[in-house]
Amino acid sequence: MTFEEFDVPTSHCPKCSSANDRASTESRTAPRAGDVSVCACCGEILEYDQRLRLIPISDGKRAAAQAHGLWPQILRYQAAAKRCKARREN
């Protein structure tokens, strides 16, 4: 699996307050408003707003991801981020 990295405007995770200024994606396209993201520091599932700031994922976006079969992949990314966090804390 190959990931492409993109610079994004710096924003802070609403859960852990970590600064995020990069995005990694398999799709090879820069993130857009409404795209789902996972905080690399805490694993919180988020989405990008119109200014590419990270915000809590909306119920509608969560339902759409589940309906389109994307939720298992999002949960895998979340689990990986949480494993990395656990390693950093040990």
Descriptive overview:
- By secondary structure, the chain is an alpha+beta fold.
- It has helices spanning about 60-65, 70-90, and strands at about 5-10, 20-25, 35-40, 45-50, 55.
- Helices cover about 30% and strands about 30% of the residues.
- The longest helix is centred in the C-terminal third of the chain and has 19 residues, at about 70-90.
- It has one domain (about 5-90).
Number of domains: 1
Helix content bin: 25-40%
Query: Mean pLDDT, nearest integer?
Result: 92
Number of strands: 5
Dominant shape:
globular
| Cα-atom radius of gyration | 13 Å
Strand content: 25-35%
Give helix and strand order, one letter per element, not per position.
EEEEEHH
C-alpha termini separation: 28 Å
Q: Order of strands across the biggest sheet?
A: 3-4-5
Poorly predicted runs of 5 or more residues = none
How many helices? The count is 2
**Largest beta sheet, briefly?**
3 strands, antiparallel
Structural class: alpha+beta
